[in-house]
Amino acid sequence: MPDYAVDRLVLVPDDVDLSRSPLAGQLDAETYVLGAFNPALTRLPGGNLVMFVRVAEALRQPVRDRHVHAIRWHDGGYVLDAWPLDRVDTVDPRQFVVHGQGWKVLGLTSLSWILPVELTADGLEVVAFHYDKAIAPQGSWQCYGIEDPRVSRVGERWLMTTCSVSPERHSTTLYSSDNGLDFTFEGIVLDHQNKDMLIFEGLIDGQYWAQTRPLGDLYFAYPPGSEWRAGPSINLATSPDSLHWKPHLQPGLRPHAATIATARMGGGAPPVLTPDGWLTLWHGVEPGGDVGIYRTYWSLLDRDDPARVIRSEHAPLLEANPALTVPIDHQIYLRDVVFTTGIADGGDHYVVASGEADLACRITHIPKSTFAMG
Question: Which keywords does this Swiss-Prot/TrEMBL entry list (predicted)?
Answer without folding.
Answer: Glycosidase, Glycosyltransferase, Hydrolase, Transferase
